[in-house]
Amino acid sequence: MSQSNVDVSEIHWLMDMFQTVDVGLVVLSADYRIQVWNGFMENHSGLTPRQVRDRYLFDLFSEIDEDWLRRKCDPVILLKNRAFTIWEQRPYIFKFRNYRPITGSAEYMYQNSTIFPLTDTMGKVTHLCLIIYDVTDVAVSRIELESMNGQLRTLSKTDFLTSLNNRGCWEEALINEYKRIKRSGHHSTLLMCDIDHFKRVNDTYGHAAGDAVIQQVATAVKKNLRSTDVAGRYGGEEFAVLLLDTTVDQAMFFAERLRKNVEAIAVEYNQQILRVTVSIGVAEYHSQMGEYRDWIEAADKALYQSKAAGRNCITKAE
């Protein structure tokens, strides 16, 4: 075989690989006009090399952020260095739809890319080559894992029945607030709230009915919260609400509104209407509280005074 035949065969092989390789290959002129467009790019864009030849990249693909890509490419031309983009920073350069069945949850193809300079015989950079990698499988797996971890973190802090903070999470928030106002001298108030005669509900109608009542009371608590307040299930039928930057007098308005909301609840269970009330104890932080547990104890003591006073009422800690 002659040398010319060998050269032609090698060129044929190279062109065949160029068209069939499972990455996108794009060559741009220095003024960002498309010169080369391989099979991967044609398959995912629906545009043939003839259709894109000499077209201005940013006119053809308006989804590309021109300023961003130029900031990536200009140093490649000036310094003759490679540049890289990753999907975590920007999901894609070319907005191609995702057609992979395994990662069908992704609407678009996530992409990494490498950008490197192409020089002429004099060493001057005349073109840019972009290699586009489809990393949808990796991206979707990472996103799903992070989502699951986020859900697990949420579940570890959430009471399953009420979707309020569980005791550990709520108590941690109380500790942090105790430390904060101990330094700042601000006002914050703690409410302890207990469903009246709850054992009677469980004994008469069963624990499922009791759970329904707890959920409805929790909904009333959430309905009255501000974005800065922290509420949690303290245990059984008892709830705790931490009202940040709130005086005891302001907290009494919150407590009364909550008491009325619960009193108006009608829980339908097995074609019966169940009604309940709550007793509430209210305690504002004061400097004589040596530890955060003293704050809980003050609110709890006020709560039991409400119970002793006939229930369905509010008591302010002394």
From TrEMBL:
<protein>
    <recommendedName>
        <fullName>diguanylate cyclase</fullName>
        <ecNumber>2.7.7.65</ecNumber>
    </recommendedName>
</protein>
<dbReference type="InterPro" id="IPR035965">
    <property type="entry name" value="PAS-like_dom_sf"/>
</dbReference>
<dbReference type="Pfam" id="PF00990">
    <property type="entry name" value="GGDEF"/>
</dbReference>
<dbReference type="InterPro" id="IPR050469">
    <property type="entry name" value="Diguanylate_Cyclase"/>
</dbReference>
<dbReference type="InterPro" id="IPR043128">
    <property type="entry name" value="Rev_trsase/Diguanyl_cyclase"/>
</dbReference>
<dbReference type="InterPro" id="IPR029787">
    <property type="entry name" value="Nucleotide_cyclase"/>
</dbReference>
<dbReference type="GO" id="GO:1902201">
    <property type="term" value="P:negative regulation of bacterial-type flagellum-dependent cell motility"/>
</dbReference>
<dbReference type="InterPro" id="IPR013656">
    <property type="entry name" value="PAS_4"/>
</dbReference>
<dbReference type="GO" id="GO:0043709">
    <property type="term" value="P:cell adhesion involved in single-species biofilm formation"/>
</dbReference>
<dbReference type="Pfam" id="PF08448">
    <property type="entry name" value="PAS_4"/>
</dbReference>
<feature type="domain" description="GGDEF">
    <location>
        <begin position="186"/>
        <end position="318"/>
    </location>
</feature>
<dbReference type="InterPro" id="IPR000014">
    <property type="entry name" value="PAS"/>
</dbReference>
<dbReference type="InterPro" id="IPR000160">
    <property type="entry name" value="GGDEF_dom"/>
</dbReference>
<dbReference type="GO" id="GO:0052621">
    <property type="term" value="F:diguanylate cyclase activity"/>
</dbReference>
<dbReference type="GO" id="GO:0005886">
    <property type="term" value="C:plasma membrane"/>
</dbReference>
